[in-house]
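Write out this protein's structure.
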Amino acid sequence: MPLPVLFILITVVIDAMGIGLILPVMPDLIQSVEGGRLANAALWGGVLATVFAVMQFLFGPLIGALSDSRGRRPVLLVALAVMALDYLLMALAHTIWLLILGRIIGGITAATQSTGAAYMADISKPEEKAANFGLIGAAFGVGFVIGPLIGGGLAIWGERAPFYAAALLAGLNCAFGYFILPETVTDRIRRPFAWARANPLGAFRHSAALPGLGRLLVVTFIYAVAFFVYPAIWAYYGQARFGWGPGMIGLSLALFGIGIAIVQGLLMKPILRLLGERNTVIAGLAIDVGVFVVLGFLTTGWLALLFTPLTALGSVAGPALQGIMSRKAADNQQGELQGVLTGVNAIATIIAPLVMTQTFWLFTAVSAPVYAPGAPFLLAAVLVALAIAIFARTRTTLPVPQFPEPGPTP
């Protein structure tokens, strides 16, 4: 594997690990700096998560536009350096406001996921993009699995130890990238920076103007909202439906992450060769509909555990859809497009928890018309079915002009 690709994948793993590393200790850390009971810590935890997602939405297009203009290498390296300092800030924080500041900075640096995806697009042939985006998804799955395990293990040295570990990982990867990462944005594809396209609304408007891309962004948003049903309600669903404790819930999430890594890392290329990008998207979305319906009615815990890795099969839709969109954008527009996709997913991250948890409450409260902990999964199935209907009416093979804008002025 080329070293630059390895660097991008390690960066994604660290991004995912950085989230998972700190999750096991966040309740204790918040209580140590703010006081109060666990319920109060959960409220502040929700604020921190929302702030993080809002920063990704606001800064995703800006970071993407900067990478189109200044290059992928400086954006990635600066972001990793700032990320390392941010984790140190959170490790040393003794007020809730410093933790919020840390999540603001963290959300901005996490927006560089779009730059990593743009780098992967730069070095990929058109027919390789979907498979390589699958590698990014696999890397995220690996980080999602090992992050909580390492974070929980490090917690024996205190609730701040995982933050020091995350800072060390980010710093080491920054040093690794400094020595091995070449720049992929050349004068041939470099684009002048423009504030009109670096804000979320401007970036959405320009990207949606590409033929067929507007509908694909809608499909991406609907799919992201539906897929977020897992982190939004899985812990509550597992307890309400199967009586699971934290250990079983953690095991099921680890199985899911392993499944994602295997599907996107090993099976993505064979599936794309067999079905093509368009049919892979449809097949993945159709699998998700079936999975969500089953989870909506499943009542046996051990069956749910056996079924969990199979749910990862639907994840082939994401990279295939991303590959289609990447081929619709010009070479000098890849950073902007990936920034828009980061923004779309960030909006979904803000909306989905509210929708899914309220649906769960509606069907599990004492006043519920029907006791149905799986109701959020049935809602997700409806959303994905809607995404299939929109995608089926969207053309995905239109030619793309490679350089719609002039290069930079000397």
